[in-house]
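Thread: quick sanity check before group meeting

JM: Hey all, I'm pulling together slides for Thursday and realized we never actually wrote out the predicted structure for the chain we discussed last week. Dropping the sequence here so it's in one place. If anyone has concerns about the input, flag it before I start.
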Amino acid sequence: MPENVLQQLLSVVWFEIGRMWWFFLLSIVLVGVIKGYKLDLRIRDSVKRAGPLGILLAVAVGMVSPLCACGILPVVVTLAMIRTPLPALIALLVTSPVMGPDALLLTWRQLGSEWALLKFGGAGFLGLLAGYTVLLLERHGYLAGDQLRLKPLYNEDGSLAPAKQIAAQQGVELKSMQIVPRKSQLRFIFDRTLDAGLFVGKFLLLAIVLEALIVTFVPVSWVTALVGQPSLLSVLLAALIGLPLPTNQIPMIPIMAGLLNRGIDHGAAYTLFMAGPVSSLPAIIALYGMFRKRVVTVYLGVSLGGAVLLGWLYQLLA
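JM (edit): ok, ran it. Output follows.
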């Protein structure tokens, strides 16, 4: 690799680290506080009892929960086992991968306030759209009946087994984190902050390197030819590009920065920003093991269709 190219790569990486490190620290401390005081779990426990408001509360959980498409699955399994209504489950599944307090802060820092507000509004829109679409399809019979493949599994004392064990019955592998109880709440918050730092940091650093590669090696003409024009086709292509991406909302931020630098149309970028995290292939495979095919089809259709709609609206209104 020529020395000047390597210098450009390193300069982009160093610049992004230099301007994002303190926002990164702020974001993981916020995650630690949320987890330490169990704010997300308190809202989650209200979803089951909320009745018609369950969809709204599920979207609220997704907004404050710093979990990706795969990370939210154990929470959904637990909620499903206690018979939480399907519309609320799907609303949570769609919202959480797109939105989180850590990702919102990092988006604000790297992409600016406009993209942070677009992310916030888009996540809420997709969650509500998914939840009320599923509710409508339930009432019309398309999603009537038990749509869950998983069956409850109980411990010897009669308590519900962990989500990982329940999913394993159906051949679904879920990621789980070992939580060590602490007498000191401050130490517990520190542990959760460290967990978030290790998880977010590795993805963020990898994505910053990817951003540098995009800026250095991807010609502007390539991006312009594919998704550089404000058209319906560019938005559809962005949704298709986002479908197989095995990435969550954190690495999408530097990737977006690199593509915007190369001239991607902002409507297409908005679609990719929404569709990429919510439709990652590993999460879809896991969902197929948890729910019947109709649920997965609706999940994909609503999340991708909603992301495309957001991109088109951005093109029309911008």
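AS: nice. Residues 177 and 195 are 9 Å apart (CA to CA). DSSP finds 15 helices and no strands in the chain.
JM: adding both to the slides.
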